[in-house]
Amino acid sequence: MVRRETWATRVGFILAAIGSAVGLGNIWRFPFQTADNGGAAFLIVYLIAVIAIGLPALLAEFVIGRRANINAIEAFRRINYSRWSFAGAIGVLASFWTLSYYSVVGGWVIRFVYGFASGAVLEMPSSYFTDVAATGVDAVALHAVFMGITILIVALGVEKGIELATKFMVPAIVVLLLGLAAYAFTLPGAAEGYQYYLSPDVGAIVADAPSVIPAAVGQALFSLSVGFSVMITYASYLSGDDNLGTDGLSIAIANTFIGVLAGAVVFPLLFAAGIQPGGDLVGSGGGAGAVFVGVTTALANLAPTAARVVGVIFFGTVLIAALSSSISLLEAVVSYLVDNRGVARAPTAAGLGVVIFLLGIPSAMSLEWLGWFDGIAVSLLLPITVVLVVFFVGWVLGPEAVDEIRRGTRGGGSLPTAWLWWVRTVLLLAIVGVLLLNLNDIFLTPESGYYIVPGPLR
Ligand code: PHE
Fold first, then answer.
1. Does 451 map to a domain?
2. CB within 8 A of 321, min separation 6: which ones?
3. Residues in contact with ligand 1 (CB, 6 Å cut-off)
4. Which residues contact 183 (CB under 8 A, 6 or more apart)?
5. Residue 88 structural domain
6. One digit per residue, pLDDT tens: the chain, 458 residues?
7. Residue 53 belongs to a domain with what CATH number?
């Protein structure tokens, strides 16, 4: 048997995991979720969800992955609970499913990079997204390009592809976003953007709790790449005795920091241009168009050269972030076939990539379909996987999970045991609650969300 790959360094693993976590979720999904769910109120609930739900669940995935050192489906068998393999399989399915529309959005980003480079976007800033970029043959073609790049990196392997790529990508994202945030700070009207973003209306959280809380939890988990078997897969390439707790904490902190930083770029830009997040933007192609339309309209107010430079930098940053996530989604699926069927990595990545591309075509043809795919992924597949993983780690693995967390630490005091009890009780109940609320929305009150199955493609 071929020796299974591993990360070359601990930092390599952490950066790859940060690269997976930081992506369109932070820059594209987060602002419109915030706008749809009451602005700063959402930010607070999201931050709590990251700490109370996201981080402990991330550690649960790490435990499974490192204990088993094999792909997310086989992992359960390897640690002697083969009956639980379906939990990993649902996660892998979630990755497969999610990449199909994630890549469509990645295609839009490519479109905006060159649209700004050529200046074409600036000729029609408010309608470029809906009229040119969002749907149609070009959207399909650019979805193919985005998948192509993703396939190439994954085909190169864990160390020479994913680790090497993310080693450059993550620092680049941070530097570019810091530059953009500093720039946004200088804009007149930026203050209003910060205010919207940073002053929560606690009344709104309480009034809308049944919809704000599940949305925030879903966003926290999606943003940390939890519930997709991705973090199980990445942790399975760990060979040494890393401290999983501190690794998880660094990843959660970096992801939150970059997410909040992205908000500090996007919201001032919108307000400086007099655009209300939510309101106007929802009309322009649904929430999915918010960042594209908003940022573009905002930049169109600048002198043309400045607008083009800032636009290319902004969407270039988003593109890097999107790719460092899409490779993790593909890797979660590829690793299963490579480990279990012994097929070579490159053809596997290419073959799967093509199938995922085909699955994404409806999303590239219609925004309703894209919204529906996103709804099923984040409101259904993700929480189902997390309920199973959390139950498994808490109640089935139990003390064994605590041993795994302690490995590579000086014992960690009583923290690992506290974590286990948290996972068994609060985390499990919370995520079951979220799943039930979502099921209620999907099956009993579909008009509340984007769960109505869209009509056939025209
Ligand atoms: N966390 C990524 C983002 O925020 C998306 C993602 C989800 C990546 C699940 C991998 C797995 O964009």
1. no
2. 19, 22, 23, 24, 26, 27, 169, 173
3. 20-21, 23-26, 222-223, 225, 228, 230, 325, 328-329
4. 310
5. 10-367
6. 467 889 999 999 999 999 999 999 988 888 777 777 777 778 889 999 999 999 999 999 999 999 999 999 999 999 988 899 999 999 999 999 999 999 999 999 999 999 999 999 999 888 888 888 888 899 999 999 999 999 999 999 998 999 999 999 999 999 999 999 998 888 887 888 888 777 777 776 777 777 788 889 989 999 999 999 999 999 999 987 889 999 999 999 999 999 888 888 888 888 877 776 655 444 444 467 778 888 888 888 888 898 999 999 999 999 999 999 999 999 999 999 999 888 999 999 999 999 999 999 999 998 888 988 988 998 899 999 999 999 999 999 999 999 999 988 887 789 999 999 999 999 999 999 999 988 887 777 766 665 666 766 54
7. 1.10.4160.10
Separation of 306 CA from ligand 1 center, angstroms?
31
Total structural domains in the chain?
1
Kindly state the DSSP code that residue 286 receives in the 8-state scheme: S
Distance 410 CA to ligand 1 centre (A): 31
Residue 147 lies inside a defined structural domain of this protein: yes
Q: Classify residue 57: in a domain, yes or no.
A: yes
CA 432 to CA 285: how far, in whole Å? Answer: 32
169-206: burial string, b at 16+ Cβ within 10 Å, e else:
bbeebbebbeebbebbeebeebeebbebbeebeeebbe
User: Are 286 and 367 within 8 A, CB to CB?
Assistant: yes
Q: How far is the CA of 99 from the centre of ligand 1 (A)?
A: 9
C-alpha of residue 92 to centroid of ligand 1, in Å: 13
Give the up-direction half-sphere exposure of residue 345: CA atoms within 13 A in the CB hemisphere: 20
Closest CA to 336 of 324, 349, 327: 349
